[in-house]
Design goal:
The chain has 68 residues and is α+β, with helices and mostly antiparallel strands. The protein has 3 helices and 3 strands; from the N terminus they run E-H-E-H-E-H. The relative contact order is 0.30. Pfam families: DUF2007.
């Protein structure tokens, strides 16, 4: 797995996850538990990761969407 995005913006993360899923990838949202523990104050970024063999495609998709 490779991390392709880290952010504290939950709306942006949701959008990026949907974008990657729509492209046929299987992204995983990491660090959700620490975010829940810290009370969602935004101190700890959540990360989107994809399989290593999908990382280049995922980065290209984000770049084309203006999100890289």
């Amino acid at each position: 797995m490779e991390t392709i995005v880290a952010s504290t913006d939950t709306i942006r993360l949701s959008f990026l996850m949907a974008l990657l899923r729509d492209a046929g990838l299987a992204p995983v949202l990491l660090d959700q538990n620490i975010a829940a523990i810290e009370g969602n104050i935004g101190a700890f970024p959540r990360r989107i990761a994809v399989a290593t063999d999908e990382a280049a495609q995922a980065r290209r998709i984000l770049r084309e969407a203006g999100e890289a």
